[in-house]
C-alpha cells in the first residue's frame, strides 16, 4: 500500500489520575505527537520540509513533544551516501527544527558527523531551544538485509537524561530495543519515559499481523511493565530498496496497556496524552524497580566477565 501524501491525524488519552495524592498526580497530562513519516532517501531538503510541516501540525494540536523515526532526516538505506547527508548536532538544519518546535520538545533522527569525521546513526532530543541529549545507536545490525557496521561507528553509551517536563527519559534506536542489556541499563537509570525510534521493515507474518509489528508490540508492553514507565515506539513507513516499512507507531502506558496506535503502512500524525500520575499508580502496584538489586547485578556481571573473558 502506498503512503498518502498527507498524513491522517488521530487523538487519544489516558484515564485521569482521580484523587491520587503526590506531586505526579498534580501534573497535567502530557501530549505527544507520533510523527510516522516516509522519509525521502538521501534528500535532506525534502525531509526538512516534511518535518517542518508535521511540527506545525503537532503544535496546532498542542503537542508537548514531537517524535520522528530513526534517520528521519535522510532515510535508511544510504550506503555510500552516508557522508553526503551527515551533519553536526549543532548544524543549521537541526537549529531550524528546534526553532520551529518552539516550546515543544523534539526527537528526530540523523547521521551525525563528529569533528574526527566518524559517522553515527544518531537521534537527538531537544527542548528549551537546545539539544539536550544525543543517542548514538549502539547495536548496529549487520545480518540478513542489514549492513550498518559497514557505514557507521557504534555508539558507546546507553544513558538516560533529565527532561524539563517528562522526567527521566531514555532514548534508543531500533536494534537497541531488542537487547535486554539496554533495557536493564534503562531500569537502573530509573526512566519515566522510554522512546524508541525505528526503521523496522516488514518481516514475517503472525496470523493477520506483520511479524515484526507483533514483536515490537510485545516488547513495548513488557518493557513498560518492567520499567514502570511509558514506552513510545515511532517507526517509519514507505519503501526503500524493495523493502516495506510497516509503521504502526505506538504509545504504551506503564501498566502495559496501549494508549495510542498509528495505522500500519500509512503516514500519520497521532497526538496522544498520558498522565504522569499513572507512573505513581503503577509503581505502587508493582514496585519492580524499587526491588531491583543493582549491586548484585553488577557483581554477577563482573563474575561473568571474568569467566567469559578470563580476566
Q: Which structural class is indicated by helix and strand composition? A: alpha/beta
* General shape: globular
Helix content: 25-40%
Average pLDDT metric: 92
| Major sheet | 7 strands, mixed
Span of the ends, CA to CA: 53 Å
Query: Looking at the chains present, what oligomeric state does this protein adopt?
Result: single chain
Order of helices and strands: EEHEHHEEEEEHEEEHEEEEEEHHH
Uncertain segments are: 1-6, 10-25
Strands across the major sheet, in which order?
1-17-2-3-4-5-6
Number of helices: 8
* Radius of gyration from CA coordinates: 19 Å
Percentage beta strand = 25-35%
Using DSSP, what is the number of strands?
17
Quickly describe the structure.
This protein is α/β, with parallel strands linked by helices and 311 residues long.
What's the arrangement of secondary structure elements?
Layout: E1 8-13, E2 30-36, H1 44-60, E3 65-67, H2 82-85, H3 92-101, E4 105-113, E5 119-127, E6 130-136, E7 161-163, E8 167-173, H4 180-188, E9 193-198, E10 205-206, E11 209-210, H5 211-227, E12 230-235, E13 237-240, E14 243-246, E15 250-252, E16 258-261, E17 268-274, H6 277-285, H7 288-291, H8 294-309
Parallel strand pairs: 1-17, 2-3, 3-4, 8-9, 9-12
Antiparallel strand pairs: 2-17, 4-5, 5-6, 7-8, 10-11, 12-15, 13-14, 15-16
Helix pairs in contact: 1-3
Amino acid at each position: 500500500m502506498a503512503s498518502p501524501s498527507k498524513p491522517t491525524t488521530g487523538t487519544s488519552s489516558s484515564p485521569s489520575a482521580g484523587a491520587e495524592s503526590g506531586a505526579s498526580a498534580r501534573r497535567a497530562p502530557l501530549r505527544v505527537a507520533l510523527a510516522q513519516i516516509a522519509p525521502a532517501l538521501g534528500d535532506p531538503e525534502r525531509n526538512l520540509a516534511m518535518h517542518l510541516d508535521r511540527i506545525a501540525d503537532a503544535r496546532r494540536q498542542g503537542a508537548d513533544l514531537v517524535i520522528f523515526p530513526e534517520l528521519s532526516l535522510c532515510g535508511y538505506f544510504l550506503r555510500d551516501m552516508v557522508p553526503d547527508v551527515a551533519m553536526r548536532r549543532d548544524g543549521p538544519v537541526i537549529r531550524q527544527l528546534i526553532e520551529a518546535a518552539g516550546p515543544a520538545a523534539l526527537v528526530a533522527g540523523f547521521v551525525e558527523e563528529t569533528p574526527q569525521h566518524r559517522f553515527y546513526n544518531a537521534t537527538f532530543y531537544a527542548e528549551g531551544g537546545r539539544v539536550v541529549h544525543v543517542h548514538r545507536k549502539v547495536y548496529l545490525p549487520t545480518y540478513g538485509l542489514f549492513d550498518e557496521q559497514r557505514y557507521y561507528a557504534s555508539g558507546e553509551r546507553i544513558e538516560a537524561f533529565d527532561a524539563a517536563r517528562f522526567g527521566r527519559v531514555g532514548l534508543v534506536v531500533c536494534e537497541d530495543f531488542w537487547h535486554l542489556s539496554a533495557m536493564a541499563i534503562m531500569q537502573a537509570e530509573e526512566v519515566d519515559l522510554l522512546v524508541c525510534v525505528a526503521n523496522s521493515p516488514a518481516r514475517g507474518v503472525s496470523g493477520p499481523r506483520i511479524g515484526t509489528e507483533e514483536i515490537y508490540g510485545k516488547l513495548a508492553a513488557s518493557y513498560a511493565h518492567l520499567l514502570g514507565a511509558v514506552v513510545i515506539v515511532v517507526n517509519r513507513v514507505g519503501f526503500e530498496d524493495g523493502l516495506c516499512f510497516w509503521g504502526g507507531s505506538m504509545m504504551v502506558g506503564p501498566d502495559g496497556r496501549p494508549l495510542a496506535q498509528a495505522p500500519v503502512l500509512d503516514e500519520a500524525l497521532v497526538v496522544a496524552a498520558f498522565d504522569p500520575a499513572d507512573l505513581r499508580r503503577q509503581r505502587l502496584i508493582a514496585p519492580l524497580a524499587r526491588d531491583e538489586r543493582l549491586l548484585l547485578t553488577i557483581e554477577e556481571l563482573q563474575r561473568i566477565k571474568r569467566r567469559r573473558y578470563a580476566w
